[in-house]
Amino acid sequence: MTKAEKKVVGFVSRHILVFGFIAVSVVAFMVRYSFFDQRSGDWQIYLAKWIDQLKEHPGLKGIGEDIGEYNVPYMLFLNIAAKTSFNDLYEVKLFSIVFDYLLAAAGVVLVYRNSTRKASGISLAVYGSILLAPVAYIDSAWWSQCDSIFTFGIVMSLYFLTKEKYCSCWFWYGIAIAFKLQAVFFLPVLLIYYFTSKKMSILNVLIAAGTYVFMVSPAVIAGRGIKDTFSIYVKQTGLYSQLTLNMPNIHNIIPGDTIDYFRPASIYLTAGVLGIAACLFIKRGYHTPYAYVTLTLWTLNVCVFLLPAMHERYIYPACIVSIIWAALGRNKWDIAIAAAINAASIRAWMVFMFNPGVNKVYIAFIYLVIIVILTGRLFSLKEEPAEEEAPAEKEETPADKKEAPAEITDAPAEENTSDEAKIVAEAVTAAE
Fold first, then answer.
1. What is the tens place of the pLDDT at every residue in 212-227?
2. What is the model's pTM?
3. Any idea what DSSP says for residue 46?
4. What's the rounded Cα separation, in Å, for the pair 425 and 30?
5. What is the per-residue DSSP string for 197-256?
6. Residue 183 region, left (φ>0) first, then alpha (ψ -120 to 50), else beta?
7. Among the four 29, 246, 272, 293, which has the fewest Cβ within 10 Å?
């Protein structure tokens, strides 16, 4: 190897993790780029039509109209996209892809800042796993969907919750709920934390409320009625009459004929399960970051599994949080559970995307087994997240130093040991 080669190899070796992050970022983008021309059904039926309608209104006038089913922040972005000369399809996908990267970075920060052992290799693994998870690149680059945006808000809120920065926690939750109603699945975690920690003020909710109001205010400024603006999510809950919208869950295992009969029962059942879990969690007084990440993963799965009118994409946050959870715990079984959640989810998505002949009841049973396992993991937690993790090195105390001579006597004496050292060793042996 020449001197020049040694310098290059040495430089790469010293900065191998930086090159790793760059390589993952490039590969992840190329995977997404390969889907850029794909026009999904959601794009053709909904998004493209909404953009065309927004083009007919100058400035912000479009978001003042009853256009689209999404909340104001995302419709504001679509309005901006409608006014540019850039390819509308690419622009929509790139917007979500930016949040794919932000979400991966947020996952890295959450794991790294809450790990007992700071391992940069784990950070790269988390970053790559989130960016290259099929649900991540299919959602943004194939489907033209925006689930990475509100999931990013949830992960940021969870991170600041674990660091006890409550203003930031509720601020990011306000952003998440402003983009997508499904961010409400994270609300039980915040409420449980409130009763368990006894540190967070209920007044912090006002931060999320203020953030939400600020995020939807452009529609009011553009002329949309206040009642109409703040009832968008209420309208969304009444859009569909099916018990499940391609999400394999309890409604596949125990099917019903109409949502009118089973909607109330499903909501009450979900509230009951969450309430029992909350009581047990609060009673046990869990407080570690790992405990709250576990609780978040469990809650996200339970809500999507039990509630009615769930789209298959609503499992997206659980898929991402499962990767973070597995990395934080560093337990081989956690990794297996995270892989199972992601594998089952992408299989469920295939039913909608390509209509393969798959019995969703089987996938629903897989989710049920996963929830049972997560329930066991949640309520058997210990203070430290990973049982397989080596114990942290204990800092030497003065008491430890006094015991050091006893350890010396157990080891063979070196040939060059001084006479004084031998006398001390013999004296210690005699004392014992």
1. 999 999 999 999 999 9
2. 0.86
3. I
4. 67
5. HS-S-GGGHHHHHHHHHHHHHHHHHTT--HHHHTTHHHHHHTS---SEEB--SHHHHS--
6. alpha
7. 272
269: buried, middle or exposed (CB in 10 Å: 19+, 13-18, 0-12)? middle
Give the contacts of 38 (CB within 8 A, at least 6 positions apart): 141, 142
Cα atoms found within 13 Å of the Cα of residue 123, Cβ hemisphere only: 18
Q: Can you read off the two tokens belonging to residue 45? A: 């039926």
Site of tokens 């391992």:
119
Q: How far is CA 30 from CA 33, 141, 144, 152, 331, in A?
A: 5, 10, 16, 21, 31
Q: What is the pLDDT of residues 158-195, one digit of tens each?
A: 999 999 999 999 999 999 999 999 999 999 999 999 99
For the cut 80, the answer to whether the pLDDT of residue 263 exceeds it is yes
CA angle 40, 45, 51 (to 5 degrees): 100
Q: H helices then E strands: how many in the chain?
A: 22, 2
| Cβ 369 vs Cβ 250: under 8 Å | no
Residue 130, token pair as written in the block: 């989130």
User: Within the chain, what is the greatest distance between any pair of CA atoms?
Assistant: 97
Taking phi over 0 as left and psi of -120 to 50 as alpha, with beta for the rest, 87 belongs to beta
Q: Which two tokens stand for residue 191?
A: 């409420």
Indicate the DSSP class of residue 140: I
Which residues have CB under 8 Å from 181's CB, separation 6+? 71, 233, 236, 237
- Supply the DSSP symbol for 391: P
Count CB atoms within 10 A of the CB of residue 242.
13
> What's the sign of the alpha-carbon dihedral 46, 217, 136, 170?
negative
Tokens representing 326?
């597995």
Residues 66, 386: Cα–Cα separation, whole Å? 50
Residues 6 or more apart from 406 whose CB is under 8 A from it? Answer: 428, 432
Distance CA 336, CA 333 (A): 5
Helix (H, G, I), strand (E, B) or coil at 351: helix
Give tens-digit pLDDT for 327-361.
998 888 899 999 999 999 999 998 777 776 678 89
* Nearest one of 140, 138, 128 to 98, comparing CA atoms: 140
CB-facing half-sphere around the CA of 377: CA atoms within 13 A:
28
The radius of gyration of the chain from alpha carbons, rounded to an integer in Å, stands at: 27
Helix, strand or coil for residue 311? strand
Give the amino acid at 151: T
Cβ distance 344 to 363 under 8 Å?
Answer: yes
